[in-house]
Specification:
The complex is a heterodimer of chains A (256) and B (336). By secondary structure, chain A is mainly alpha-helical. Chain A has eleven helices and no strands. Chains A and B meet through helix 1 and helix 4 of A and strand 5 and helix 3 of B.
């Protein structure tokens, strides 16, 4: 276990070094700065409330997570990864290293965004304690999305299984598209089945939605106290699945 | 004792059989060349040995153990295609790979410097790998393969690609590896490379080992030879041509087709008498080529044994340019 953690840290160090040298990290830093300047500059037309900050920051970090994941997995999905593995880097340490690199970069950019806002237009009524309370579910959501993307990367799931997983996610999210009049137009049986399927598939995504709401409200009373553990559990579940699949499959890194 | 033992190894990829009951034994302390055409299964075997792929059936033993995960850290690997991150310098990347191997601090730094020196990269150690020439990147490749002091070294096409300036230096570097690593398995499509570097070769065709031989037994003089001299005056050429219809002259080269110890002796005597300097005497269509051609065509052939009274030629370094005469000899000798 200790060896795996050591290797994972080495992989993280290597990935950070390569990512920084590639210059891609500048895009993320520029995006964070851009987001801060566009949405939070003085006189932007919005009150800088904590709710507004966490809404924008929550959406921004998730969007950034999509970009960073794609960049980091592209970095990992190259033939030089064979070299690292031939030198003793285990499969689990490799994948965890990439996952933590994504979460680390997005978290750092969130930190940059928060700092920029604190300098140019401090949020009213948001102290350090409030910032931490909102940041925890926000970053846990980033980790959750990163774990889902880790599972869905071509490194881990073959194309066929990826399509199946994406269709399940799409079905779970289909409530916004197929609802109200559309649902009413469907035969009763089909609508009921769809409702059940959505509920079953949507349940695992509940921590993500409630996590987003918790970041905005920062109200940990009642059942909300379970949101963060649920986010962590779902993240660990997705990661375990990804690690298990990656450990069993043929390593086929891209041509670079 | 065998460093690598493979029994009845099968590997399927989708519905396509890559390895079909491969049996292979590489003795500890030997340099073994796995030769075969593209898609014969050489790289797949390397991938399985390294744990990148899983085999479907069969037994694998590395250093006497079937617990491959435990012994893989004693295996070094030179990958095909030089997949090294170009933004790192050789010193940085060797250091990073040393950390993956579990080396720390001063001991790791010393190992890195040792390998940089051994690979002849002292002047280039702080330049980005992406800026290095192909040959220097391959030198780096050998350095990284050795950083963990492996007991088994797997080299996938160590001398690949077109003729390169400095290629012979690289060959010598690879040849020198036997002093530093006890067992080496080389996968290559190049017969000359295998003959030059290996103690024993196996021909892999369609996932099966179809022939095996000791290279010393394959270093016979062959049917035809080509003698190169610094200059061949017309008068000497005429005297040589008069010796036998088997003698051909072109430019500064003399072909003996077919060769015989007697004819070779007479030709060399003429050259010595004329005070000409012989640059090289090379065999053509060497037994190794014969073995290879028979193996890939599926024809039976006896494994050659070294003859007691015939001299064993030194291996010829590959990558010499071909003249018209060489081309003619090659074409003729490759015709079964």
């Amino acid at each position: 276990m200790m060896r795996m953690i050591y290797q994972m840290l080495q992989c993280l160090d290597f990935t950070f070094a390569e990512y920084t040298r590639s210059g891609r990290v500048l895009i993320e830093v520029a995006a964070a700065a851009g987001c801060g300047l566009i949405f939070f500059r003085p006189g932007a037309g919005q009150d800088s409330t904590p709710e507004y900050f966490f809404s924008i920051a929550g959406a921004f970090t998730l969007a950034l997570c999509l970009y960073t994941s794609s960049a980091i997995f592209a970095l990992g999905d190259r033939p030089h990864s064979y070299l690292l593995m031939a030198h003793g880097l285990g499969r689990r340490a490799f994948l965890l290293g990439l996952f933590i690199a994504i979460v680390g970069i997005v978290s750092a950019c969130y930190g940059v965004l928060s700092l920029i806002i604190a300098v140019i237009n401090p949020i009213l009524d948001l102290d350090v304690r409030g910032w931490i309370l909102g940041t925890i579910p926000l970053l846990l959501n980033v980790a959750l999305l990163a774990a889902l993307l880790t599972l869905l990367t071509p490194l881990v799931l073959p194309a066929g299984w990826r399509l199946v997983a994406l269709s399940l996610v799409a079905l779970a999210f289909s409530g916004n598209l197929i609802s109200g009049p559309t649902m009413a137009a469907l035969p009763n049986g089909v609508a009921t089945v769809l409702d059940v399927v959505r509920t079953v598939l949507g349940a695992p995504l509940l921590p993500a939605f409630t996590g987003f709401a918790l970041a905005i409200s920062r109200d940990y009373s009642g059942i909300s106290v379970l949101v963060a553990p649920a986010q962590i559990a779902l993240t660990l579940g997705l990661l375990s699945l990804a690690l298990n699949v990656f450990g069993r499959r043929e390593l086929m890194f891209g041509a670079g | 004792m065998f460093a690598i033992e493979i029994e009845n190894l099968h590997k399927m990829f989708d519905d396509h059989a890559i390895l079909r009951g491969l049996n292979l034994r590489v003795p500890t302390g030997s340099v073994y060349g796995l030769v075969g055409p593209a898609a014969a299964g050489k790289s797949t075997l390397m991938r399985i040995l390294l744990g990148f792929s899983h085999h479907n059936k069969g037994t694998l033993r590395l250093l006497g153990s079937t617990q491959l995960e435990q012994v893989r850290e004693r295996v070094g690997y030179l990958p095909q295609g030089q997949p090294y991150p170009g933004r790192f310098t050789p010193r940085e990347l060797l250091g990073a790979l040393g950390r993956f191997e579990g080396m720390h601090g001063r001991a790791r730094d010393l190992r890195v410097e040792e390998e940089i020196q051994a690979a002849g990269l002292v002047q280039l150690a702080d330049q980005p790998i992406g800026m290095l020439s192909q040959v220097d990147r391959q030198r780096f490749g050998l350095a990284q393969a050795l950083i963990g002091r492996p007991d088994i070294l797997l080299l996938d096409e160590p001398v690949a690609g077109p003729d390169l300036p400095g290629d012979h230096g690289l060959l010598d570097l690879v040849a020198g590896l036997r002093k530093r690593c006890s067992t080496i398995l080389i996968a290559t499509q190049r017969l000359d490379t295998a003959e030059y570097l290996c103690d024993r070769i196996g021909i892999l065709v369609a996932g099966q080992l179809t022939a095996e031989a000791d290279t010393i037994a394959l270093r016979g003089p062959g049917r035809n030879v080509l003698i190169s001299v610094t200059a061949l005056p017309e008068a000497v050429a005429e005297r040589l041509l008069a010796l036998s219809p088997a003698v051909l002259c072109e430019g500064n080269e003399i072909a003996l087709r077919p060769n015989s110890p007697e004819l070779q002796g007479r030709v060399l005597a003429e050259l010595v008498a004329a005070q000409l300097t012989v640059i090289s005497l090379e065999p053509f269509a060497r037994p190794i080529e014969d073995l290879y051609l028979h193996a890939i065509r599926g024809l039976p052939r006896e494994t050659p044994q070294p003859e007691q009274d015939s001299p064993v030629a030194s291996p010829v370094q590959p990558n010499h340019g071909d003249t018209l005469l060489r081309e003619l000899l090659k074409q003729e000798d490759k015709t079964p």
